[in-house]
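Bumping my old thread because nobody answered last time. Still need a sequence for this structure:
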C-alpha cells in the first residue's frame, strides 16, 4: 500500500476528531512457547492508519496541532538488539519513512502523553481491549487533572474509536480492492493446486502444505487465519484445524483457507471428493449448496440489506433439504422451529478486509444495514450432516459442504474476486482428472 493511502486514511479520521485526540496502540508480540514468538502481525486498526509494522508502538492523532497532527511512539534504534532481533525504524525512521510529524522513543510515552492530551475535550481509543493500557490512559488524564488549578483543561469524554474507524475500514478504496483481488487470485490458485494434488491416502496436512506453498511462493507469507482441511467426518466440524487425518477414498474434503496479502485477507472454501468423483448423495448436497450460493450472490446488490443474501441461501437450502427428505414439514414450519439449523448453523457471510472477520456494523439502529459499493463480504452457505444425525439416512452422514467466495459490492451488483477456482461439480471433477 502506498504512503499516500495511509495519509488519506489519517486525514479522513482527523477530520472527524473535532476537539479530540485519537490514541491507537498496536498489539503485543506474543510468545508461542518459552522464548519462541509467534510471527508479529500488527493490529489492523493501527496498521490501517500508520503502515508501521513493528511491535511496541503507539500512534496519536491530534487535529490542528501546530507541531504536527501525527505523532508516533516506537522502539528506539539499538544496534545490539537489531543484530539479534532485526531492524527497527526508530523515531527518525518513523518520520522519514512513515510520515510521522513527530516521533519519540516508546519509553517516553508516559512522560509525553499528558502534554499531548492537554486542553483537548475528548479521547478516542479502543477502550477495554488491553486493560494495562486502559490504566495508563487514565493515569495520563489524572496527571492533567492535577494541573487543573494552573488552568489546564482535561479531556472529559472517552469515546471508543472503534465505531468511527471501523466505518472507514468497512468501505474499501480502489487500492484496497486491488490488493484484495490479488489475495483472491493467490488463494484461488492455492485451492486449484490442492484439488490437483489430492489423492486418497494423503494426510490432510499434506493438502494444507500445498495450499501454504502456493500462498507463500506468490508473496502471501501467512494465511489470513488457520487453514481448515477437514475430510470425511471432519468436514462437519466448522472450525476444524487439526488437519491430521488420512484422506479416505470415497470421502469429501472441505478446505477453508485464505491468503493474507499485504495485510488483506481472502477467504475461500471449496469442497471436493478425495478421489475426484462425487458420489450420488455428495453430489446432491453439493449442488444444493452451490445453488444456495448463487442465490445469495445474486442478492449481493446495493440497497439490498445485509441479511438478504443469507435469507436467499436459507430458502434454497431448507427447501432443498425438504425435497431430499432430510428435513420435514414446510419451509415456514422449518423457519419457525429452526430445526434446519442442525445442518446449516452459521450465517452466509461476514465483512472481509484486513481481518478475515472484518470490522463494521451489520445493523444500524437495530435494522440490517444496506449494502453499498465498496463493502466486501464473503458468501458462504453450507450443509453439514454429521454421522448420527437423527432421522437422517446413513447414506447422508459425514457429508459437510461449504462453498465460499468473496464479493465486492459494486454500483450494479457485485464482483466475485475469488472466481479463479472452479466450483461447478463437473468442473472440479474435470480439473481433478486432468
Ligand atoms: N474462514 C472462516 C470463515 O469462513 O468465516
Ligand atoms: Mn468466511
Ligand atoms: Mn472461510
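Sorry it took so long. Here it is:
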Amino acid at each position: 500500500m502506498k504512503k499516500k493511502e495511509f495519509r488519506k486514511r489519517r486525514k479522513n479520521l482527523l477530520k472527524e476528531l473535532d476537539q479530540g485526540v485519537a490514541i491507537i496502540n498496536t498489539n503485543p508480540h506474543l510468545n508461542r512457547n518459552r522464548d519462541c514468538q509467534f510471527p508479529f502481525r500488527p493490529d489492523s486498526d493501527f496498521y490501517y492508519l500508520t503502515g508501521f509494522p513493528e511491535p511496541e508502538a503507539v500512534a496519536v492523532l491530534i487535529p490542528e496541532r501546530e507541531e504536527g497532527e501525527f505523532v508516533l511512539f516506537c522502539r528506539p534504534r539499538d544496534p545490539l538488539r537489531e543484530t539479534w532481533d532485526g531492524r527497527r525504524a526508530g523515531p527518525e525512521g518513523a518520520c522519514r519513512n512513515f510520515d510521522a510529524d513527530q516521533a519519540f522513543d516508546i519509553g517516553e510515552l508516559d512522560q509525553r502523553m499528558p502534554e499531548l492530551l492537554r486542553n483537548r475535550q475528548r479521547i478516542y481509543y479502543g477502550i477495554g481491549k488491553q486493560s494495562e493500557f486502559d490504566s495508563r490512559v487514565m493515569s495520563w488524564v489524572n496527571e492533567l487533572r492535577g494541573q487543573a488549578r494552573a488552568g489546564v483543561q482535561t479531556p472529559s469524554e472517552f469515546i471508543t474509536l472503534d465505531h468511527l474507524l471501523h466505518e472507514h475500514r468497512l468501505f474499501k478504496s480502489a487500492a484496497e480492492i486491488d490488493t484484495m483481488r490479488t489475495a483472491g487470485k493467490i488463494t484461488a490458485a492455492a485451492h486449484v493446486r490442492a484439488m490437483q494434488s489430492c489423492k486418497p491416502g494423503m494426510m490432510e496436512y499434506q493438502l494444507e502444505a500445498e495450499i501454504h506453498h502456493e500462498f507463500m511462493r506468490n508473496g502471501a507469507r501467512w494465511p489470513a487465519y488457520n487453514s481448515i482441511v477437514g475430510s470425511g467426518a471432519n468436514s462437519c466440524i466448522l472450525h476444524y484445524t487439526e488437519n491430521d487425518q488420512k484422506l479416505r477414498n470415497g470421502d469429501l474434503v472441505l478446505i477453508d483457507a485464505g491468503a493474507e496479502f499485504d495485510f488483506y485477507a481472502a477467504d475461500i472454501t471449496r469442497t471436493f471428493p478425495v478421489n475426484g468423483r462425487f458420489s450420488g448423495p455428495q453430489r446432491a448436497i453439493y449442488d444444493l449448496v452451490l445453488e444456495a450460493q448463487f442465490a445469495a450472490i445474486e442478492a449481493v446488490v446495493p440497497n439490498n440489506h445485509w441479511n438478504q443474501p443469507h435469507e436467499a441461501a436459507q430458502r434454497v437450502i431448507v427447501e432443498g433439504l425438504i425435497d431430499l427428505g432430510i428435513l420435514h414439514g414446510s419451509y415456514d414450519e422449518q423457519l419457525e422451529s429452526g430445526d434446519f439449523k442442525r445442518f446449516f448453523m452459521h450465517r452466509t457471510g461476514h465483512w472481509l478486509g484486513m481481518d478475515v472477520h472484518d470490522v463494521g456494523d451489520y445493523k444500524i439502529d437495530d435494522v440490517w444495514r444496506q449494502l453499498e459499493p465498496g463493502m466486501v463480504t464473503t458468501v458462504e452457505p453450507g450443509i453439514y450432516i454429521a454421522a448420527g444425525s437423527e432421522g437422517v439416512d446413513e447414506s447422508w452422514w459425514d457429508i459437510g459442504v461449504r462453498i465460499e467466495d468473496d464479493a465486492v459490492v459494486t454500483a450494479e451488483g457485485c464482483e466475485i474476486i475469488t472466481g479463479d477456482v472452479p466450483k461447478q461439480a463437473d468442473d472440479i471433477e474435470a480439473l481433478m482428472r486432468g
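The first strand starts at residue 20 and ends at 25. Let me know if any region looks off to you.
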